[in-house]
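Exercise 7b. Backbone tokens:
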């Protein structure tokens, strides 16, 4: 099933690439921090920040801040609901528009191959209020926001490569894909298929609490305009999973 899902994502992106009327390609660098903190048997919270820049690290393109409350159904399943703020900058300028987002998700993880490898499924629903920019009397101003519902499916696989000298440090490979689907009529993006993010990379796992990952992400955006976008992105991520319960 895992191979089928990954193949489906790859074929979908390839097909969209070939059939797009026009494709703009660019380079990006994304920095991300994601932390999940367990504070009680069934409760915790999620904190996340992402900074998306051009490949020269000179232009801030988009910032994302996400928080949420986590309910742990079991050690492998959890539900999360929260809020996200996204600032998207006009290329080459300091102007930006805001997006306010409510989100809910279900996440399931499964270990295999003597618990050395892991697969994660995540289904996320988003309610988005997306702003826009316009010009009034020669000045760039916010033109209000449009509402959109969006569904995301994320499949992530971690493959054990080797342990370092310390038994609690591990090198692993990352293979993941996320597909975005727009729901219903909206003014943000009239296409059903919104975007796809495919990533391959390497990670360092320290004591199952801190992960540092470096990878290449192929980010395809199916635009409302005639020109679609494919960003070749260097992804750098720091991930924490901490248990803060009193012992």
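Sequence design result:
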């Amino acid at each position: 099933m895992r191979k089928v899902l990954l193949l489906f994502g790859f074929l979908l992106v390839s097909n969209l690439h070939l059939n797009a009327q026009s494709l703009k390609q660019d380079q990006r660098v994304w920095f991300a921090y994601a932390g999940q903190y367990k504070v009680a048997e069934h409760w915790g919270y999620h904190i996340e920040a992402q900074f998306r820049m051009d490949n020269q690290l000179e232009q801030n393109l988009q910032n994302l801040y996400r928080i949420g409350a986590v309910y742990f159904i079991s050690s492998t399943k959890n539900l999360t609901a929260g809020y996200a703020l996204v600032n998207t900058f006009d290329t080459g300028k300091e102007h930006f528009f805001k997006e306010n987002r409510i989100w809910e998700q279900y996440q399931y993880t499964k270990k295999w191959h003597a618990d050395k490898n892991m697969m994660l499924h995540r289904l996320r629903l988003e309610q988005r209020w997306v702003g826009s920019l316009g010009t009034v009397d020669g000045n760039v101003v916010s033109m209000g926001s449009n509402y959109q519902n969006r569904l995301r499916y994320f499949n992530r696989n971690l493959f054990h490569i080797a342990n370092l000298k310390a038994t609690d440090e591990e090198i692993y490979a990352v293979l993941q894909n996320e597909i975005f689907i727009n729901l219903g009529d909206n003014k943000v993006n009239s296409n059903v298929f919104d975007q796809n993010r495919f990533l391959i990379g390497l990670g360092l796992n320290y004591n199952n609490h801190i992960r540092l990952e470096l990878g290449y992400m192929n980010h395809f955006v199916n635009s409302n305009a005639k020109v679609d976008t494919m960003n070749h992105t260097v992804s750098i991520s720091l991930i924490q999973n901490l248990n803060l319960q009193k012992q």
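Instructor comment: The chain has one domain: 2-243. The first strand starts at residue 22 and ends at 38.
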